[in-house]
């Protein structure tokens, strides 16, 4: 089958790889209907040293079950399914607590002999635990919205949930990428009253307003912090959802959070030390979040998509064929595209 | 009156200072019955550069009201009272949320014309908000226990509460100082099942066992982490209460916390950056805590002292007269004493 391989920074290729096959009795093989490119795919796209052992790319997809192993009981050939961006057994102690990213048997797509997701098909370990059946057909117009359950919607929601966003809350969302916009949707779902979106790309922040942002702050750093404080009677917001992962963004988070408030970060941190010393200790700031256990939220969020209350699929602004995927990486990296769907 | 002044590292003196007087109508003047030396007093005791403008020391006390301003309504001359380690109006938005340390009108003892607490008497701003009446006489044998409501018991409890310790929980307490021991008491009050105390002073860890620690780990660093993991099936504890404030202690906290767990720190951090990068992001660790709003917890904790369910006053292992206070600083700094009571 055809699949996406990264050989070096800026060297994405679509090549023939081995067809996926059932290897373990808990596996399924799924034909991919939609996949997409993630902001986090851009980190290796920008930095991977040249290698003869290319990286298998992609971790978000939905598709149709083609074959199941002998121990798969909840799925059958023809089922339309979505998968979270890591696989997990959904039965271990961590999974039962909703922390599927720490699953004792789980792992990442694209490594250790598990295919990436930007390809024609894929082997899914722990299929019963990993895959969630979608009650739609594979030509449903809701597929792009449902595809966001694979990562960005659940990641934005993880930020809002771990921050403890509640009805009437004040929230700052830092970052107008797909995850930031999903965090706006999530804060609104949880009843936030004031949602300040910090971002400087107007087409994205306009979409953020459609999703529920009450204010947009385009300024960054000290000016951005001053603006958020102006909008909140000098205090800052009770919750801050940090959806970038750069040190500037976390510093900005401490600047806009109210005393006693919570910063949740879901942007994968590109730094090792958090500037969190005595001053913010005196203010009783909490820092939470982490990689999102998407699997824990899929069933909870899906009904909001099915009843059309939310339309997270609007973050996709370009659809490409698998063979064109290199254009998609380039467009996202140049910020010419917000998020790109791939149709194998 | 006589009061404690710090002129330089290792230069504590008891000298005559101006008698406290009502300055604002919300003030009270309180005669101090018991005060004590805090672990945090040792930071300036170890490091203060020589000054002609000595620091007024002390922030923990209980005493008897001598005089009240015209706007003090809930207290009268003769009332036995305890005060938290910062003063606060108890009416502003932050106080109403239980975050008295961020009170819009609050402040610290010993600065801006407010007396320290290691003296014979003191002016108390916002007396109605700050002071809590104690239902005992000034010769009660419970006074040492009740004095811990001023800081250490509430600080340990803040660690346990912000960490979210619940019934059946597993908890590591880092530090066998007075606050660490108070954190053990607090974790037990909240129903923790496993309480691992990390500390290497056996008289203190023995007291910790009396207070409810189920295990003691004397090792530090990697060895200490390995020991805690051994005691928890390899996983670490769900909650970690960091009661030291040094970088080693926070690093140790990340080492012993279970995936998805929470570290609460109440040891005033003596460093600016927290080592909290991608690895712990993948584990969904939360870092919370901060300076304790003691005022928020006094009414809640007092009944447990009055009914003798807890005896936090056992952390006091030396009683000195005010004129002997320099000996108390020396003994605590040399770890010859755990916590010293001062009787003016």
Automatic annotation (TrEMBL), chains A, B:
Coiled-coil residue windows: none
Record key words, sorted: Metal-binding, Zinc
Annotated protein name in UniProt: IMP dehydrogenase
Residue stretches making up the Enoyl reductase (ER) domain: 8-342
Organism, scientific name: Streptomyces spiralis
Molecular function in Gene Ontology: metal ion binding; oxidoreductase activity
PANTHER family listed in its UniProt record: DEHYDROGENASE, ZINC-CONTAINING, PUTATIVE (AFU_ORTHOLOGUE AFUA_2G02810)-RELATED, ZINC-TYPE ALCOHOL DEHYDROGENASE-LIKE
Cofactor(s) annotated in UniProt: Zn(2+)
Keyword Metal-binding belongs to the record: yes
InterPro entries: ADH-like_C, ADH-like_N, ER, GroES-like_sf, NAD(P)-bd_dom_sf
Pfam families assigned to the protein according to its UniProt record, in alphabetical order: ADH_N, ADH_zinc_N
Keyword Zinc listed: yes
């Amino acid at each position: 089958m055809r699949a996406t391989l990264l050989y070096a920074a800026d060297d994405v290729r679509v090549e023939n790889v081995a067809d996926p096959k059932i290897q373990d009795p808990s596996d399924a093989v799924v034909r991919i209907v939609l996949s997409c490119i993630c902001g986090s795919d851009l980190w290796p796209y920008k930095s991977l040293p040249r290698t003869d052992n290319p990286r298998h790319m992609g971790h978000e997809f939905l598709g149709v079950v083609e074959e199941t192993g002998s121990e798969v009981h909840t799925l059958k050939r023809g089922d339309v399914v979505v998968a979270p961006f890591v696989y997990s057994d959904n039965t271990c102690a961590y999974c039962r607590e909703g922390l599927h990213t720490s699953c004792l048997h789980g792992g990442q797509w694209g490594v250790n002999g598990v295919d990436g997701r930007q390809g024609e098909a894929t082997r899914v370990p722990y299929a019963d635990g990993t895959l969630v059946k979608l009650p739609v057909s594979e030509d449903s117009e809701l597929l792009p919205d449902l595809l966001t359950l694979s990562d960005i919607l659940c990641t934005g929601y993880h930020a809002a949930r771990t921050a403890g966003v509640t009805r009437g809350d004040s929230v700052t969302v830092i970052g107008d990428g797909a995850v930031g916009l999903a965090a706006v949707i999530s804060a609104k779902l949880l009843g936030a009253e004031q949602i300040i979106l910090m971002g400087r790309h107007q087409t994205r922040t306009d979409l953020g307003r459609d999703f529920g942002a009450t204010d947009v702050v385009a300024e960054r750093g000290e000016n951005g912090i001053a603006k958020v404080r102006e909008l909140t009677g000098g205090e800052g917001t009770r919750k801050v959802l940090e959806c970038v992962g750069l040190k500037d963004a976390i510093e900005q988070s401490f600047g806009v959070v109210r005393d006693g408030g919570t910063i949740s970060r879901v942007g994968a941190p590109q730094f090792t030390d958090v500037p969190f010393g005595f001053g913010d200790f005196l203010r009783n700031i909490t820092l939470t979040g982490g990689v999102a256990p998407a699997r824990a939220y899929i069933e909870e969020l899906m009904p909001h998509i099915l009843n059309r209350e939310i339309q997270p699929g609007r973050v996709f602004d370009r659809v490409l064929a698998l063979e064109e995927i290199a254009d998609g990486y380039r467009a996202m990296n140049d910020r010419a595209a917000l998020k790109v769907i791939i149709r194998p």
